Amino acid sequence: QVHLVESGGGLVQPGGSLRLSCAASGFPFSSYAMSWYRQAPGKERELVAVVLSSGSTNYADSVKGRFTISRDNAKNTVYLQMNSLKPEDTAVYYCNAGLLYNNYWGQGTQVTVSS
Question: Which has the closest alpha carbon to 64: 82, 38, 87?
Fold first, then answer.
């Protein structure tokens, strides 16, 4: 059974940092592209960052230079280091695992950036 469990969300002041984690199980983690998405109230879910099985990464323009995605295949975990957070980063952040026709989602973790 596939599980993706996010953690690390919370309330942070503008300019602060958070590190999200997503622990995966039930599928061959190292073969999958791992991504972070986010969805703000009243908005569509959007891709934030992706790390391929090769280790290559890609980011949304809105987070380039502030967020870093990484993966640890030994721990079946993907991370999102978020620095210089802004109020517009407030959203529910979701972990995603994708390979061909397989696509799995976590339950999400809330990130709120507010003073």
Answer: 82
